[in-house]
C-alpha cells in the first residue's frame, strides 16, 4: 500500500511541474449563441460563466475580465463568431490570443463548453498556446472585401455555366463557335435572344469583326429549337451574371478606397498623385478596374509587382493577408511554413514517414501556385528554374517549389526593403548551363572513344 501511495504522489508532482507563464489568463469557448468564459478559481466565486452573444453581452464580458484582473485571453477562431469579441476585448486593453482549434483539443472524456473554456485557460496560463497572425485593422478590412470579390468571381462561373446549359438545351451551339460566352459578341447575341430575336441572319450581325470563326459555322450554331423554359433560364442566368458584374465593380471601388486610406497613413496624407497613376484605360475580364502597383509601392516602399509571375491579384492578396509588417515571422522559412508551402515532415524512429505539404486552404498559397504555374512559358531565369524542376521532380512538385521561392522572395523584399534582383537566378542559370555543357562534352568524348 505504501509503495502505491508513493507512486501516485510522484505522478501528481509531475503533473504540476508546468510553470505558470500567464497568471492573469482566461479562456473563452466561442459559439454562435453564447460565450463561455473561464478565469482562475481564486478570482471569483463562480469562475466559469456563460454570456450571451449580443453586443451588450460582449461589453459585460470585457468588464468582468477587468474586474477579475485578467490581462490576457485565449479563444478559438470559430467561424466568424470570434471577430466582434476580439475587437471589443482589444478596445478594453486586454491582450487576445486567437488560437487554432486543433491546438486546444481537450483530453479524452466528457466534452462540455465549460470544460473546453477551462482547458483553454489552463493551457494559456502555462504558455502553451501560440497566437495566430492577424494584420492591422485597416488591412483586415481590405482582406474581407477582397475575399468577397473572390467569392463573387467564383459565382460568375456558375452563371456562365447556366447560360451554356440553357443554350445547349435549345441546341444553340454558341459556346462551340465563340471562345468565350462572356465576350462582347456572346453577350450581345444573348441579350438579343432575350429581347425576342430568333433569326440567325440578324443575330450574326452582332458578332464582332475580330472573331475568326467562319460566318457559315456561326450561322449553323445559331439555328436551334426555341423552348420557353430554356429561354426563361437563359434570361435569369444573364441577369444574374450582369448583377455579379455590377457587384464586382462596386468591390473594386471599395478596394481602391481602402488602399487610398492605407496609403494616406504611410505617406503622411499625400495621396494626390496615386489615383492618377492607378487609372486604367482598358481592363481585361476579371481584372481590377485600377492598377494595384502604385498603391502597393506607396505603402510598402518597394515594387513587389516586379517579381516574375506576379499579377495584380497575387500582389494585392499577399498584402491583404499579411499587411506591411512581417516581423511576426522571424525567418523566411517560417513565413513559407505559415503559408503552407513547407513540407510537413513526420519523423518516427529516426525515419521520415511523410513529408507532404499540409492540406492548408490558404489564399496566399492559392495565388502563389497560380503565379508559379504561369512561369512555365516565361522567358526568364525563374521560368528556366521552373522547367528544370519540372523535368526532374514533376509538374505538381515543381509548382509548389516555385511557389515557395516566390514567397521567400516576397518576404525578403518586404522585410529588407530591397528591389527585386534577378541576377542571383541568372548567375545560377549560367553556372547550370556551364555544368550541363561540360557534362555533355564529357559524354561525347566517351562515345567517341567507344566508337
TrEMBL record:
<dbReference type="GO" id="GO:0003677">
    <property type="term" value="F:DNA binding"/>
</dbReference>
<feature type="domain" description="Transposase IS116/IS110/IS902 C-terminal">
    <location>
        <begin position="305"/>
        <end position="384"/>
    </location>
</feature>
<protein>
    <submittedName>
        <fullName>IS110 family transposase</fullName>
    </submittedName>
</protein>
<dbReference type="GO" id="GO:0004803">
    <property type="term" value="F:transposase activity"/>
</dbReference>
<dbReference type="InterPro" id="IPR002525">
    <property type="entry name" value="Transp_IS110-like_N"/>
</dbReference>
<feature type="domain" description="Transposase IS110-like N-terminal">
    <location>
        <begin position="26"/>
        <end position="170"/>
    </location>
</feature>
<dbReference type="Pfam" id="PF02371">
    <property type="entry name" value="Transposase_20"/>
</dbReference>
<dbReference type="InterPro" id="IPR003346">
    <property type="entry name" value="Transposase_20"/>
</dbReference>
<dbReference type="Pfam" id="PF01548">
    <property type="entry name" value="DEDD_Tnp_IS110"/>
</dbReference>
<dbReference type="InterPro" id="IPR047650">
    <property type="entry name" value="Transpos_IS110"/>
</dbReference>
<dbReference type="GO" id="GO:0006313">
    <property type="term" value="P:DNA transposition"/>
</dbReference>
